[in-house]
Automatic annotation (TrEMBL):
<dbReference type="Pfam" id="PF01339">
    <property type="entry name" value="CheB_methylest"/>
</dbReference>
<feature type="domain" description="Response regulatory">
    <location>
        <begin position="4"/>
        <end position="121"/>
    </location>
</feature>
<comment type="similarity">
    <text>Belongs to the CheB family.</text>
</comment>
<feature type="modified residue" description="4-aspartylphosphate">
    <location>
        <position position="55"/>
    </location>
</feature>
<dbReference type="InterPro" id="IPR008248">
    <property type="entry name" value="CheB-like"/>
</dbReference>
<feature type="domain" description="CheB-type methylesterase">
    <location>
        <begin position="163"/>
        <end position="353"/>
    </location>
</feature>
<dbReference type="Pfam" id="PF00072">
    <property type="entry name" value="Response_reg"/>
</dbReference>
<feature type="active site">
    <location>
        <position position="175"/>
    </location>
</feature>
<dbReference type="InterPro" id="IPR035909">
    <property type="entry name" value="CheB_C"/>
</dbReference>
<dbReference type="InterPro" id="IPR001789">
    <property type="entry name" value="Sig_transdc_resp-reg_receiver"/>
</dbReference>
<feature type="active site">
    <location>
        <position position="297"/>
    </location>
</feature>
<keyword id="KW-0145">Chemotaxis</keyword>
<dbReference type="InterPro" id="IPR011006">
    <property type="entry name" value="CheY-like_superfamily"/>
</dbReference>
<dbReference type="InterPro" id="IPR000673">
    <property type="entry name" value="Sig_transdc_resp-reg_Me-estase"/>
</dbReference>
<keyword id="KW-0597">Phosphoprotein</keyword>
<comment type="function">
    <text>Involved in chemotaxis. Part of a chemotaxis signal transduction system that modulates chemotaxis in response to various stimuli. Catalyzes the demethylation of specific methylglutamate residues introduced into the chemoreceptors (methyl-accepting chemotaxis proteins or MCP) by CheR. Also mediates the irreversible deamidation of specific glutamine residues to glutamic acid.</text>
</comment>
<keyword id="KW-0963">Cytoplasm</keyword>
Length: 353
């Protein structure tokens, strides 16, 4: 069965370009196009598409308000189609925090309209079509033991706010739905949180805007990771370099290292690469957190952290946009705790046993 897509964009040229990029995909069908939010709203009701592509910078429309209505009234996987400006990137990052599942740039790295995207839009649409939205869970259900678990994960309630002083570093991996999840998680991190490093699967050009969006939600400072940057308490560092893995190195003092390399587990930067470096460098003094995302990146790395003695946490299925990455980690026995997104911070900061 084909993935049914609705394109919403005020530019006839852009609508034609997006349609042409999908025309030769046998498993994707563009069911209709709209030039503004009003048309888009009616066509969503008419076609009930599997995926919506949304130009959030359309004139005469508050794209964030429209997206919020979609996610509230008729939750649908939305891919944001972004322009080349910093303002456009900031809006895109805020849209991801509201629940858009991914973003796609109209332009190449030079700022020119991309003539060929090598199938990126089609790939994003296929991934988005696998997203199934659930009603919010106010209180978590008891966690069942997953298949092939080496040890049953625990859910232990702790008072919020205290930090175990033997935690030198927190490492986080996330993908589809991750910006929204990170916003919830980091909101609970205090000003003096342990240094925290994040790999979020996203087009690297959007990473600085995502860092700014998360910084507004987090008491600690959120910034883009730079090579050789010291990792300090009260700071959160986001991977942002294309074709570079974010690693942690050091002995008495920890530093971020950016290393050019091939994709690992299908991604660069890779969560597996980050977690493996943390297992090697920080060992039992680290906390690893694997959040919502497609695929398996991070599962083997979280297992390496667990085997090194680190405290490891996976987001539960009820609050994941996509349960792929946490599920893979749980099936390996890599997660010591499985918890809903609104409970993960207390487990991470208290390093609950």
């Amino acid at each position: 069965m084909s993935v049914r897509v609705l394109i919403i964009d005020d530019s006839p040229t852009m609508r034609a370009i997006l349609m042409s990029r999908l025309a030769e995909q046998p498993d994707i069908e563009v069911v209709d196009t709209a030039s503004n939010a009003a048309e888009g709203r009616e066509l969503i009701k008419k076609h009930d598409p599997d995926v919506v592509t949304l130009d959030i910078e359309m004139p005469g429309m508050n794209g964030l308000d429209f997206l919020e209505k979609i996610m509230t009234l008729r939750p649908t996987p939305v891919i944001i189609i972004s322009g080349a400006t910093q303002e456009g990137n900031d809006v895109t990052a805020r849209a991801l925090a509201l629940g858009a599942v991914n973003c796609y740039s109209k332009y190449d790295t030079t700022g020119k309209l991309a003539l060929n995207d090598s199938g990126e839009l089609a790939r994003l649409i296929r991934d988005a079509a696998q997203v199934r939205f659930r009603a919010p869970v106010a209180e978590p259900a008891p966690v069942a033991e997953p298949v092939r678990m080496r040890a049953k994960p625990t859910l232990i309630e702790e008072s919020r706010g205290s930090i175990r002083r033997d935690t030198r570093l927190i490492a986080i991996g996330s993908s589809t739905g991750g910006v929204e999840a990170l916003q919830v998680l980091l909101r609970e991190f205090p000003l003096d949180c342990p240094p925290t490093v994040i790999v979020q699967h996203v087009n690297p050009r959007f990473a600085p805007a995502i860092a700014r969006t998360l910084d507004r939600a987090c008491p600690a400072q959120v910034q883009v990771a730079v090579n050789d940057m010291p990792l300090l308490p009260g700071n959160v560092y986001l991977a942002a370099e294309a074709e570079h893995h974010l690693l942690v190195r050091g002995t008495s003092k920890l530093h971020a290292k950016l290393r050019r390399g091939e994709p690992i587990s299908g991604h660069c930067p890779s969560v597996d690469a980050l977690f493996a470096s943390v297992a090697q460098t920080v060992g039992a003094e680290a906390v690893g957190i694997l959040l919502t995302g497609m695929g398996k990146d991070g599962a083997k790395g979280l297992l390496a952290m667990a085997e090194a003695g680190a405290h490891t946490i996976a987001q539960d299925e009820s609050t994941c946009t996509v349960f792929g990455m946490p599920r893979a980690a749980i099936s390996l026995g890599a997660a010591r705790v499985v918890a809903p997104i609104n409970r993960i911070a207390r487990h991470a900061l208290n390093k609950a046993a």
